[in-house]
């Protein structure tokens, strides 16, 4: 009997078909589809959502799927340092993690498609088939990525996701900004992917397989190797443990790029040049999520390396704090959201790095919904503001766009981590994991986790502040511009996604209320934890716990979760409250000016962009120019020089022929004489 | 006799095209070029070879008879296909037809000569990839230079004469160097232990080992080393491997688009194909000894070519330097002597052939319309020629190694293969260095695209810019489809390549 | 009888004189004469060694050489005539339009 | 059963010369150019056919047959070269038919060409130093006249003068060398000289050595080899183009024919070397000097004809490998010398063709410099294609005839252990590609503006024949090289 898994492939294929259809329409140059291709996209993502739900239900029934369906390339013999032939294949891994992610992605994608009707179609944009083609491919790539059962396939779709982000960020290609931002997004993530690709190659070279799950999966082999039960190739003279750390960090490069972690976060704020629904998709469910999803997907591998975990946690926590601090001073609504995304993904990283697999995944889940909500809400505001994104031009939108306001508020509460909104539960759990593992672990990892916890905690304060600063400036007070005064809310296609997401952002946190469980002792309500425990052994929560303790040396201290939760909640409230105080008035002042030069630093993102652009423009480009000059002058110069020298030699040599026949006779005689004398001596004739 | 028929037909087609009036030459040439294309596809469908042609594998479509005797060696007509040459043969026929169609717009004088030369080149390329006797091979090898010389020199850009003569002399000198190396190895080294210079005979005689004698005052090992170096340098010019690459940008920039397509698409592959056949198949022990140098050279080519591409302002120059970069991967893959390394290198030849052909063609279509290739002269072309630009973008991403396109497959195979190579010392480091090329390639292609294709439309020239005609765009689309097809299903060629390279794996170890 | 080596010395001397004249004279006619001297140096050898070896080959051949020398002079004079017509001189160093 | 005298091809050439002269002196009108060309071409073709027939039919001539008390020998090599001379004569007479500067004097020109060809044919057969000298003069004297043929032309006169003066000097040296060899060995017949060498020269080694070197000088003159090459650039440049074609192809080949036989048969290498007269070494030196000078000087010329003249010197250097790579014991001697002969044969077509194109250009009045040829490809594609083929063949680019002959030649050198000589030759050959392609560039790449008169039929026919000879050698090279190597091997038997 055909079950959900038999159709799972269609989850990714459906949006791909909508992409093909839209490309065909775009190529024809005619308006063949109603709504410029939106309807096929909605139908396709709707179908994906249904199938994802079906898969989700099937998985919750305890079934999982881990099969190869297409052999991309297969070697015939074991060569080099490998002990068996390489097989590069495509397959699907359907377990709780991927099933959950499929659901998130297809849902957000569907809502983004719907919202686009309002944001793009109703605004009279041109090039809609191209837009929907991009969305379709984007969704398909991300779904393919989520389905992937091995690292190579994951990498391939990871790259396709990058391509789609390029196409969509640069959607308004006739302007100067978007193409530049698109280029930057692709390039910066490409830089990360470079390391990722080395990592993929290294995984194949080390383990001969890149499968995520099952007995013959690379995390499993690595585990056996560390336990001394198996041997693997290592390179560069490293011990297995060190080499696995290297591989893990290489793959992490891709994660840092895609999930916009420090120092490769610079592309993300620029990516706001794209249409806002695209931002929602990128930030909530697809591209940025892909990075951390990857860490979760191969968590069994990272769990083996305390060093890698520490780095993940530190990078995450630092990014969380760092991005949050920049979000404090932004003037544009989407910029604030952009930095909040970076910051929140930092939390997810922190959670994963701290050994909180469930916590990180949980935050990934909640963040997907509330960030999608916030972006779509911002999109709604932007529609109303006629594409003016400056918050100082807004104000008082609360009355004019109530649906947007309340849903946006829900999202903001979630983002700020105010109980009981979704973000509270997940962020709290992330910080809690960092704390308990930091306290419980004795090695350097423990210290790292405590430092990370500290940074994460501070970021909570900032998050609360910038979130409510944004809410206050946008929706409260008096309208500060003509457009704001006349703003009006969009149609159903704007409101519906907002409402759906608003409900989710409010409630989705309830699936894993660990503090409540701790308080009440009702651990049955940690649904997500249970859900993820239902995975096959090699990718299950229990296995990860085991690995973390066995190889990561991570142990949990006994700290009540509600204490930690209370602390972070308090900080979030302080942040939100101070924002309310500072910006809650009818006509708020730009208090950030008071920060003086610090504001400049923050506003300019710690000059991260500047130094990277400086590196590109003042180091790399001049270097290439120098190389070009060198190539022309020296390398090519030698080539031309050989020819010149030959010709010069020829032009000298031919001067022998000076036209005087007596000279000819003389030279002839001389030549003969030399030969005669030479041979006479040589031959000993006389 | 199928191969001979195809080659012969191409020669006749060249002659016919040379003689028809200019007005119809383009159509006639395209129509005639379809026959070899169909023929090679037939070869592909009927391919029944296995193993490597040089190490005693079963050849498909083998023909062999004696021609004459040279210093005691039988010179033979000897052709046949194995899994390495068949893909290249298909590539040749495929690109020739597309290049001919893409020439309809830009070539507006002496058409019959132009298309005649294209077909003449095709005939020689087919011969070169199928010939298994050294002399026949060398004759075809050299004869491909002639049409390209004329194509650049007659229909090229402002500095075409310089570029043509540089290309011609540089590559010819290289060929002679290689020739001397090979002759020294066979005449001097192998001496009477072989009675023909058919490549399989030479390869198998060398494989048997111990057959190489002293010559030129060199002992057997030194002789092999010298011969290897001579051949390697000779082929490296053709590939081209930095720093022997400087003829390439000039040739590409000056060549008319269809010639660039053939140059980048097929002619560069001659170098790596020959390296594979000669250096790496016949003298794997030397190649293994020199692996660190060759790998370093490959990685250097990748990075150096890419950095140079970054500095260019001319679209064609960008693609030209990026070819240097891409072919560096091939070198790295070959010297890895692992299954995926060598097979990936071979696959990359095809993949790069298609993608670089696509890129040159797309740049050519833009040039046809704008009459400039300088990045600074134009912007916002996407507005005026959306389809061409769309395909160009797709092609550029193919060049950057976007998964599910052929370029990624080739590069990935190479990376995997070279990473776990046991022949290259510190293989992961070389691999990692070379892989950085994928970042730089994205840098310069995206930068160039941003400046030319996007932003508000402007053009420093008095030309009406409109959509390109269908016959300009159709070849691009066909190529793009081929690139994607190979990227999604590498086994179209990979299987036979793996089969054919299997005997080479492991190198001289 | 004069030792045969003396003839060799003589012929070499004559040859050298001819060569010297040829290298130093600029007049085409002197040039021709010098060549004649050199040919006759060869003839001395032929005749002397013909006697020494006791066969007639050398003597006969010297006749051939003389005949051919005459023919050569005939052609040479013709060319010198044309030279004079075109260059108004019989100086062999005058025509040097073609060089390098 | 018809039995023809073994020297029939030579006789035919001589008789044709007489017939031409006879008709020319008897005719009353100013026309008759067609008849003269016809006689010459038919006669030369008859000679070519006979030589070919003798070579291929089972006449036993290839093994060698002495005539005139051993003064002359007819064998494979002499027939091979005679066929070559006859073929070049056909091309040259045919090409000269349309060459305007010689209008009204075709009889003389053809007569002289045929006489010179007769002399060359005898050179190829000469089995005695006496015959060699006479034949050499028979070939040279008409050549002087041919070079100076354009009496009103200062260039032609200057060329003739220089050619003559150097020629006279060289023949004096040559004959003095003969006299010394005679002094040392007591004979002029090559087999007898060889016998004397074999039995030891005693104290006359020095005399013989000087003689051998001077004979080599005479040969070097004829083949335009360094340092006896000085006449060549001027003579080829100044002479009427068909004459240049004739001299640079046939006359050079004749010099080599003479050299091959005289040195191989007359001065057996083993005996000569042990006596300290290592003429193979001499030719190695000459070969290197000749090809380097020829090619490097050719690279910077600005007149096409002069470039071809220098390149002709360069080719003499290649062919010298045929002598330089000989050694006393080697079994490969016949192969390498055969390869040299084959190269001369191919050269006879491609080089003659190239000079005939120059003749065509002179006829069109386009000028002599490279840039004067600009754009001819577009205007006269057939002739330009032919010229291109000749040039690339000269450069040794596959698949043209020149590639094969060079290949066999260089391979022969490698086989004989002279790999360094082959390397130098290859380097020179690649340089030659540069300057040959300059002409190609002018023909095809440049734009030109000419007002060209039509396409002269006979000249085009000659070009076509030369083109066929250059290109068809691709499949037909087997018989040529085999015949040549067989003939050469017979010499060492």
Number of strands of chain C: 0
Measured as a percent range, the helix fraction of chain C is: over 70%
How confident overall, as mean pLDDT of chain C? 89
**Strand content bin of chain B:** under 5%
Which residue ranges of chain B are poorly predicted, with pLDDT under 50 across at least 5 consecutive positions? none
Interface with most residues? A-B, 62 and 76 residues
Distance between the termini of chain C: 53 Å
Q: What is the structural class of chain C?
A: mainly alpha
Largest sheet of chain C: none
H/E element order of chain C: HHH
Report the CATH topology name of chain C.
Helix Hairpins
Q: Which regions of chain C are unreliable across 5 or more consecutive residues at pLDDT < 50?
A: none
- So what's the overall shape of chain C? elongated
The number of helices of chain C is 3
At the first level of CATH, what is the class of chain C?
Mainly Alpha
Given helix and strand content, the structural type of chain B is mainly alpha
What would you note in describing this structure?
- The complex is a heterotetramer of chains A (686), B (509), C (100) and D (493).
- In chain A, 71% of the residues lie in helices and 3% in strands.
- Chain A has helices spanning 4-28, 38-60, 96-121, 128-147, 151-169, 177-207, 218-226, 240-258, 267-270, 276-285, 287-297, 299-302, 306-327, 333-353, 357-384, 397-400, 402-416, 422-440, 444-475, 482-486, 492-507, 514-520, 527-533, 541-552, 561-583, 597-603, 608-653, 661-683; strands at 65-74, 87-94.
- The termini of chain A are far apart.
- Chain B is built from 22 helices and 4 strands.
- Chain B has helices at 2-19, 22-45, 85-102, 111-130, 134-143, 145-155, 160-190, 199-208, 220-238, 247-254, 257-282, 284-289, 291-310, 315-336, 339-370, 381-384, 386-399, 406-419, 427-435, 437-453, 470-488, 491-501; strands spanning 60-70, 73-81, 378-379, 458-459.
- In chain B, the strands form 2 sheets. Chain B has a two-stranded antiparallel sheet.
- The model of chain B has no long low-confidence stretch (mean pLDDT 88).
- With 100 residues, chain C is mostly helical.
- Chain C has one domain: Helix Hairpins.
- Chain C is 78% helix and 0% strand.
- In chain C, helix 1 runs antiparallel to helix 2.
- The longest helix of chain C has 31 residues, at 57-87.
- With 493 residues, chain D is mainly alpha-helical.
- Chain D has a two-stranded antiparallel sheet with strand order 1-2.
- The two termini of chain D are 30 Å apart.
- The model of chain D has no long low-confidence stretch (mean pLDDT 89).
- The interface between A and B is large, with 62 and 76 residues.
